[in-house]
Amino acid sequence: MAMPTEFRIRVEDALKKDEVRTHFRKAMDTLMTNRRNQFPDEAELQRLRTQAQSIRANALSKLPELLEQLESNLVRNGVQVHWAETTDEANRIVLNILQQHNARSIIKGKSMVSEEMGLNHFLEQQGIEALESDLGEFIIQLDGETPSHIIMPAIHKNKEEIARLFNARFPHIPYTDDVDELTRNARAILRDKFYSAPVGLSGVNFAVAETGTLCLVENEGNGRMATTVPPVHIAVTGIEKVVEKLADIPPLFSILPRSATGQPVTTYFNMISGPRKPGEKDGPTEVHLVLLDNGRSTIYSDPELLATLRCIRCGACINHCPVYVRIGGHAYGTVYPGPIGTILEPQKEGLRVHGELVQASSLCGACGEVCPVRIPIPDIINRLRHDGVRQDGGSRTRDAGTRRKRLEAVTWRGWSWAASHPSLYHLGSRAATRLRKLMPQRLGAWTRVRTAPALAAQTLHERLKALGVDHE
Amino acid sequence: MNKARDNILQRLRAQERPPGSFPGRDFLSRHDWPAAECLQRFTERLQAVRAEVHHSSPEGWLELLVQLCRDKNLNNLLLSPQTRWGQAIYAQAGRFPKLQAYEHPIEDWKPAMFHGIDASLTGTLGGIAETGSLILWPDAEEPRQMSLVPPVHFALLEAGRIYSTFAEAIARQDWVTKGMPTNALLISGPSKSADIAQVLAYGVHGPKELVVLVV
Predict the structure, then answer these.
(1) Is the ipTM, as predicted for this complex, more than 0.90?
(2) Taking CB atoms and an 8 Å cutoff, what residues of chain B touch A256?
(3) Which of B180, B185, B208 is the mutation pick for testing A, counting most A CBs within 10 A?
(4) CA–CA dist B51, B53 (Å, integer)
(5) Mean pLDDT of all residues in chain B?
(6) Cα dihedral sign for A400, A406, A408, A409?
(7) How far apart are the C-alpha atoms of A462 and B191, rounded to whole Å?
(8) In chain B, where are the structural domains located?
(9) Chain B residues whose beta carbon lies within 8 Å of the beta carbon of residue A62
(10) I need a labelling partner for B59 at 20 to 30 A (CA). Which of A129, A240, B37, B88 fits?
């Protein structure tokens, strides 16, 4: 048998953690119920999905023009715009800004793109402290972990674990496992950091080309803190996040929190259009935007895969995924887990490293049904399965064709040949039913947790004929 | 990094683009709710996320504010002396906790802002009934940190400026023509998080209490 892959090892480990699995099950059930309660009117939901889909599709159809418009409006507003082809370039741009200000630390609002960049690790190597301020991100950073969910990064931890973690890291604060007290303690610790941080970093949920506005969606206020209190604000985002008009924002801001956590709205919707103007008394004096490509322009070049870039990062597909709920976010071994990670990561990082993820799907279709921008995730999973083994050169997906296995290819070619030659097919199926006693009971991985299926005594053709069904 | 910019744009342009099959924008969602229903929905939404909402009147709100400051045992209140409502409050300064103006850039008084202010009061540009949101455009008189750093935030809202939806507010107030301010905000309750075991906790980084006075 082949060596188990790293992914399989992680999955097996995750499946053994009963307590964590129970926790995920409970959390995802709550999230699914909350979402359902937000859309009592099916017609409204479908109308909103159509709007959100067309807003995002329209923006992508004009992407280069909108990026230029966004840039020129931001520059006019006083924002400095930087472009990065790779995560390494993006990290260096951030480092460069920090060095210009002699900054030894930054405070971060939640940003999945910064996770994608591996920014914290990169800055640590340069001797710069990158502190997460979103409560969930703060917790997992204390434990040296990465997010297990894009919206609720610490969802895999229960409150006792978090209480012990706080106690170990901040022994001067009395132990508590009361959620309100834990929250108060985190507030006090992070307030001091916001107060003194020389630079704040955030992600971007939507960037409006028409007005040069960066929109941030959040509940805690750490996003506002990180973008308001430090003298310098750096926003990092993928090039796909732009929308054309300000009027495009309300439908997206309506469907995002309702799909994500089942809230009607988040506490804060923060629209930033520039640094502090003369006469204003607070706000950063410098605002930077880093636009990251990192494989997105390659995804953009494929008319089918392009739909991947419509994503507004709500996490609804993750919350509804029967695979995610069982294995959790860390088993994926990627920045983005769940169905969206399953289609995004192999395209971004290549099929060689993450192509196995597209096999970890039952194609049940739940992700596609709940997606607020109607990304056909199951179709794209199928497409990437094909890309992994195809040899026709018809796909630009990174590492296309590298997952082809000779035995598998020969087997399928044989099957397709037999299935299109009736006499051979009948001979084969008849032989299988007559010789069924000889079928081995152990069929590799398939029978490790299942009983081998028993073949019938007669073929389907024989039984139908006996029932009098006419051949044609 | 202009090379990166050129390369990215060139790659994006190299492709035959999906046709802009945009059926036209019909996103101006709004509801024909009468004013009373707007106010009711707005109030219920905000109360559901533990905001305090008080319905008052042009004659009564000052008295109500005096009472609320007393009930909350506030030592001071940060507000602008220049706004209409600020002038009204300053005119009766003796009845309020110590009134504090945001006179200087934050750099000149950051420690006091972070460690010495109990509460702030700001105006709003309007409200949104559908989501229970306040619209704020912070400016030189009422800067950004006023609605963020103090633990208690009082917000004044004119009842006649509650729109049914966010889309309606943008359109009716003509944000695009006016031009966006440095920072525009929707605030829909006190700061909150459910990051610890999905238990909802209030007052994470922003204000712990949001008190809305509808006038």
Answers:
(1) yes
(2) none
(3) B180
(4) 6
(5) 95
(6) positive
(7) 69
(8) 31-214
(9) 17, 20
(10) B37
